[in-house]
């Protein structure tokens, strides 16, 4: 299994990000479980890791979660005008442990 490496390509290799734990609050409005504890697999490079350990960029209008291995966008959370748009298309899959 390939795991998050934290060695993203230069496009995301800056220090202007939080870890994925910062998504717990905004996503608590969508999921009844703590989604940051789930495991995600990157569609770009196949790396897998806890969503809490991915890189969250909050300076753009939308919150952007990037793969720490390749820098690909995993998740986009856009909240405005009373709507929340959640794009999970950067994940090949997300595994949620129910127990
Ligand atoms: Zn990746």
Automatic annotation (TrEMBL):
InterPro entries annotated for this entry? Answer: DUF6510
One Pfam family hit: DUF6510
Q: What is this protein called?
A: DUF6510 family protein
Question: What is the scientific name of the source organism?
Answer: Sinomonas terricola
Which lineage ranks, top first, belong to the organism behind this chain? Bacteria, Bacillati, Actinomycetota, Actinomycetes, Micrococcales
